[in-house]
Structure formats: structure tokens, C-alpha cells
Amino acid sequence: MKINISLKSYNSFGVDVISKELYEVYSEDEVLKTLNSLKDRKVFILGGGSNILFTNNVQTPIINVKIKGIKIISENNNHVSVSIGAGEIWDDFVKWAISKNLGGVENLISIPGYVGGAPIQNIGAYGVEIKNVFLSCSGYFIETLEKKEFKINDCQFSYRSSIFKKSLKNKFIITEVVLQLSKNNHKINKSYKSLNDVIKSKNVKDPTIKDIAEIVSNIRKDKLPDPSIIGNSGSFFKNPIVSQDTLTKLKERFSDIVFYKENGIKYKLSAAWLIENCGFKNIKEKNVSVYKNQALVITNLGNATGREIYSFSQKIKSKVLEKFDILLEEEVNII
Ligand code: EPU
After folding, report:
1. Which of 32, 47, 167, 213 could form a disulfide with 106 if both were Cys (CB 3.0 to 4.6 A apart)?
2. Bridge partners (DSSP) listed for residue 149
């Protein structure tokens, strides 16, 4: 256990707050022992810290899941099932899959964070979400130490959400994730516009898993700051989902508003467009800024505190509400 340790290297915003008690656990056994020793106390589960904004020192004991291991547990002619320890770095796993020519997660390359956090917010990028390759995840209920496996239909996956962000928030600790990847006949997903545009402009015929990974990785490099250099946690807000009626009214006032069809009756608005059109792109305040290439990303320019970042984010939120009557919802967990 680490006492009074700085969490600066444990969160991708690089915010310097203190954790009173931090437990790094490397196996299921250690998870159980730690939970037992903390019985009846509230605990906070931390993965890669890539979707979190600490605004205060953390008094609650933190369990940082570091369980490693990637193994194929079953296979047939077309698919493999892969078990991944929750503490594996997501991108290491994606690169492992690509090196073995296993398809399904190539669009999800370069997303920061650990594997255990991926199902919690149903990570997604460039037309793919983890739910598209998800089989199950396992772990323990924090209060009862009961072990449980959640199959895909138990997880209530939706856009950037799951049961682990809703009724099971802070109640369940994920130790293992099982995904299904394709060995043969993998259907490349090039539906996302900016991805398809590059494929077309480069005249890539029948892109392979490696081609997609390379193209997505390059698009991300252009748009998103590397958190090891500039503190950030990717998109700060979710893209808001609105009704046809709301969209029609917005389009009357803002004819170039960016939106996508979400399902039959709902539409997703580009939060980046809303923020940019409130004049925030590349705007700095103290040590905080809206990223120059992606208005949905808030960055720590140096020694910003979590409160400075939070207060700037709330200014953005108020301005978007005032101008568009749309209430943005944080994608980042504010602690
Ligand atoms: N746009 C602007 N201004 C900007 C950036 C984008 O107007 O500063 C508009 C453009 O029209 C652009 C469109 O928004 O074509 C879409 O932009 P982008 O492809 O960057 O996608 P996004 O909707 O802003 C979402 C995810 C990202 C994910 C990308 C690609 C959310 C909250 N964010 O961003 O996820 O990488 O799509 O799939 O859904 C993350 O969750 O941390 C994250 C980075």
C-alpha cells in the first residue's frame, strides 16, 4: 500500500492530487485480500486514469487494478476468444491483436487507458465500440466479494455507457475481459466519414487490419494531443443525443450544425462543433486550454489543478447551454 502518494502519474490530465491510501493489485487473489482488508469501507477503483478528473485529494482508499495477461482461450475456424487482464494497457492489447492479424479492434487503436475501463464506458472510435467484439467480463462485487461474469446482454451497453457506469457504479471491480476477434473473413469497418475519406484519398484498395490501424492512428495523432506530453482525457463531454424536433429547430437557426443519425428517431450532435461555435477553440485560461485541433478536448498546459480544469469546463457548458439550449454531459468522471 502507498500512503499519501501523488496521483499525477495515475491520471492522464496529469493533475497533482494526493491519494491517502493506494493499493496496486496484480492478481485476483490480491483483489480479494485487499477488498477483505478494507471491508465495510468505501473504495474507489482506478484503471489507467484516462477518463478521470481529480478535483480534490482522495481520502477514500484507491484500488488500482494491474492484473496482466492476454491469452486465447478458445477458437474455431473464424474466431478466437481472448481473455485479457483488466490491468493490461488497452493499446498494448490492440497492437497484440494487429500483430496476430486478428480483426475487430483495429479502429480502436491508440485509445489511452486500461482494458478494465473499456467496457465501463463502452469505448468507441471510428465506427466501432467495444460492445461489437465483447463476449463477457468478470470480477467481484465490492461489498460481498461475490464473483460474477457479465455476458454482453447483461451489460446494458449504449453510447459511452454500461451497467458499470449506472446501477453498478463503484460497486463492481472488473478483473478480466473476454473479447471475440476474427481470424478469417474479417469485415473491415470503414463507415466513419473521416476514416473513409482518407482511404479514398490514398486510394487504398481493400484496406487490411494493419492499414486501418495505421490510418486511424494517424488521424488521432493529428486531432488529439498525446496525454504523455499534454495532459488531457480525450473528449471531455459526450456528443448530445437529441430528438428530431430539437434538431429541426436548431437547424433553422444554425444551418451548418454538425449531426449524425443515431437511431431511427434520435440524432447525435457534434459537441466539438457546438463548443467551437461558442468561440472556445484554442482559447486558454490560466493553465487550461481547449485543444487547437479538437474543441472537445480540454488540456492541462502545465500545472493546472483539477478545479481549474473543472471550472473552465463549466464555462464551456454554460456558454453552449446559453447559445444552443443544449446541456452537455461530461464524459469524464469528475471526482
Ligand atoms: N468538429 C468540429 N470542431 C472540432 C472537431 C470536430 O466542428 O474542433 C466536427 C467536425 O464536423 C467533425 C465532427 O465534428 O467532422 C466529428 O469530429 P471527430 O471525428 O473528431 O469526432 P467527435 O464526434 O468529436 C467522437 C468521440 C471520440 C472519437 C471520435 C472518432 C465522443 C464524445 N467522442 O468525437 O472519442 O475518437 O468520435 O470516432 O463520442 C473520447 O471518447 O475520448 C474520444 C476521443
Report:
1. 213
2. 138
51 lines ligand 1 (CB under 6 A): no
Residue 263 has pLDDT above 90, yes or no: no
Pocket test for ligand 1, best of 270, 277, 333 (most atoms within 8 A of CB): 270
Q: Whose CA is nearest to atom 20 of ligand 1?
A: 294
Measured in angstroms, how far is the CA atom of residue 330 from the centroid of ligand 1?
14
Q: What are the tens digits of pLDDT across the range 183-215? A: 998 999 999 999 999 999 999 999 999 999 999
Both 75 and 166 in one domain: the answer is yes
In the chain, the number of structural domains is 4
Q: Is 190 in the pocket of ligand 1 (CB under 6 A)?
A: no
270 lines ligand 1 (CB under 6 A): yes
pTM exceeds 0.85: yes
111 lines ligand 1 (CB under 6 A): no
Are residues 54 and 77 both part of a single domain?
Answer: no
Percent of the chain with pLDDT over 90: 98
Mean pLDDT of 96-114: 98
Ligand 1 touching residue 239 (CB < 6 A): yes
233 within domain boundaries: no
Q: Is 331 a catalytic residue?
A: yes
Going from the Cα of 298 to the center of ligand 1, the distance in angstroms, rounded, reads: 13
Provide the domain limits for residue 212.
Answer: 193-220
C-alpha–C-alpha distance, residues 40 and 249, integer Å: 51
Evaluate whether residue 188 is within a structural domain: no
pLDDT score, position 299: 98
Backbone phi, psi, residue 228, to 5° = -75, -15
| DSSP-assigned states of every residue in 58-108 | B-S-EEEE----EEEEEE-SSEEEEEEETTSBHHHHHHHHHHTT-BSSGGG
Instruction: Look at residues 65, 87, 116 and tell me which one is the last residue of a structural domain.
Output: 65
Per-residue pLDDT at 276 exceeds 90: yes
| C-alpha cell belonging to residue 217 | 492512428
If asked whether residues 87 and 158 sit together in one domain, one would say yes
Q: Decide if 87 is inside a domain.
A: yes
* Rounded average pLDDT over 303-310: 97
In a domain, 27, yes or no: yes
